[in-house]
From TrEMBL:
Lineage, broadest ranks: Eukaryota, Fungi, Dikarya, Ascomycota, Pezizomycotina
Pfam families (alphabetical): Fung_rhodopsin
Family listed: Belongs to the SAT4 family.
The organism of origin for this protein: Dactylellina haptotyla (strain CBS 200.50) (Nematode-trapping fungus)
Location in or out of the cell: Membrane
Bilayer topology term: Multi-pass membrane protein
Coiled coil: none
Transmembrane segments: 106-127, 139-158, 184-206, 218-240, 260-285, 297-319, 339-364
Residue ranges constituting the Rhodopsin domain according to the UniProt record: 124-360
Keyword Cell membrane included in the entry's annotation: no
Keyword match Phosphoprotein: no
GO cellular component, one term: membrane
Highest rank taxon of the organism: Eukaryota
Name by which UniProt lists this protein: Rhodopsin domain-containing protein
Amino acid sequence: MSNSTNEQLTDAQLYEFLKLSLYTGGAAPKYAHIPIKAVMHMLADYAVAVNYSVTAEDLKQYFGTKERDIKPIIKIFGSLPEFAKDAEIGWKKYMPIVKHPMNPDIVQPIFLTFLFLTGIIMGLRLFSRSMINGHIMAYDWLALVGYLMSIVYGVLAVEHSMANGYWQAFYDKSFNDVAESSKYFFILQVFYSWVVLVIKLSLLAFYYGMTAWSVTRWCIYVVAFVVVGNTLTSFFVYLLQCENIDYWNHIFQQNCHINVSAAVITFGAIFVATDIAIWLLPLPLVLQLKLQLRERILVMLTFCLGAAACIASGFRLQAVARYTNYSSRTTSTLMIHTWSMIEINLLLICSSAPAVRALILRYAPKVLGSMKSRGTVIYDKERVDSVID
């Protein structure tokens, strides 16, 4: 590690310092419950006290270092004395000038807001199907499953924000906090793909049932194939990315087979592309319908909701690119969960808009004008098919 004492660390220096913090915490299980910066201080003081002649037995006795971690530490730092010297440099030269960013208190408010809002919309959707159609369709049940899964995702995200603690950077956390946070992030990373899969399949099933146009149906097949394939591929990549699934317990034995950050960004980009495709799928059908002004405005609002979901998906991808690489000036992943919850819930609200509109037309027709158009713009299958034919 460089001895630079600049007032602000470069990205490369910060990257090295964050790695040093992570390794210092991982090498001291005996003090895994206290902030890593305190452990670094202890290791630096010990190194000076023994004139840097640190041995494996010293680390095991005074810091609880595991036998299996000794060789990897030597491989990473060159020798145990060099590891101790880097800890001293980190404490004396870098710790005084690094920033101490706090985690944003945003996950819980976003979760509670959408829990209430999306819950009302989903309730109206199911009530509309029951009262107007006489029964709830299969894709509505699938959307309900997606909503319940979104609640589970939100609860896990809140738990992750609590496990993540007050501080963002590794050196301000205890190693136990780092490991617990990594565990929740892994679970949420895997679970996100399945939540999105269920919600998108419910939307595609809805589109499929509302048109007999072969071109649209083939497009639906293609999008569904991509969504399912991306979900399955990401699931197995996340599970098998490292030799140990619980990599947070094996900091020095990760042996990862792929570039995890690149993989996460790639899967995220594909999900953004499918969001856009699903948003555009019904557009050719809707453009051919003859709608009154108020109906046309409502359709535009519905499409704006879909566009907002696509935008949220894009911001999520940006957060993934920024926060999964700790060479940046933050190590927080909470913004990924925030944008994920926004995207998921906007997809659910957007998919429920036609059913809610039908309910309004039935019980409050003055809100949207004439009752000439029964059902919904996309929901009214006979209207759509008559235009196509």
